[in-house]
Design a protein that fits this description.
This protein has 2 helices and 10 strands. The protein is mainly beta. It binds 1,3-dihydroxypropan-2-yl hexadecanoate (VLP). The site of 1,3-dihydroxypropan-2-yl hexadecanoate has 21 residues, from helix 2, strand 3, strand 4 and strand 9. InterPro entries: Calycin, Fatty_acid-bd, ILBP, Lipocln_cytosolic_FA-bd_dom.
């Protein structure tokens, strides 16, 4: 049985989100707003099918995927760049590679105790987010 990420999760820490957003080319004004946000994630996991809905008072982003099936990701409302994305398991971690214009782009989710962890990567920047169950 793999781990179950399902649930509603609230952001409690967000290290180097600024660096990550800058690497993605997010403009100054948007970065100022975005870094004040406390996004919530609603994750639904059904076998190898996932939906991850990241919501905030400013913008929402919804992602749906199946493990091992590459898909087109539009990043609408984020940096709006299209990627070919692929999510796989690495032990109990979910690893996403977002192949496209930006080098080294992707993210990793894992559970640690009662917390949901997320590492967001773009070029030479790493953002580390931690969420607690709502
Ligand atoms: C863009 C970069 C902030 C900042 C401007 C808008 C949506 C893993 C994965 C599933 C992500 C989140 C990416 C956040 C990038 C912000 C709007 C913030 C709320 O999550 O859970 O998509 O990639």
């Amino acid at each position: 049985m793999p781990v179950d990420f399902s649930g509603t999760w609230n952001l409690i820490s967000n290290d180097n989100f600024e660096g990550y957003m800058t690497a993605l080319g997010i403009d100054f004004a948007t970065r100022k707003i975005a870094k004040m946000l406390k996004p919530q994630k609603v994750i639904k996991q059904d076998g190898d099918s996932f939906s991850i809905h990241t919501t905030s008072t400013f913008r929402d982003y919804k992602l749906q995927f199946k493990i091992g099936e590459e898909f087109e990701e539009d990043n609408k409302g984020l940096d709006n760049r299209k990627c070919k994305s692929l999510v796989t398991w690495d032990d109990d971690k979910l690893i996403c590679v977002q192949a496209g214009e930006k080098k080294n782009r992707g993210w990793t989710h894992w559970l640690e105790g009662d917390d949901l962890h997320l590492e967001l990567r773009c070029e030479n920047q790493v953002c580390k987010q931690v969420f607690k169950r709502a």
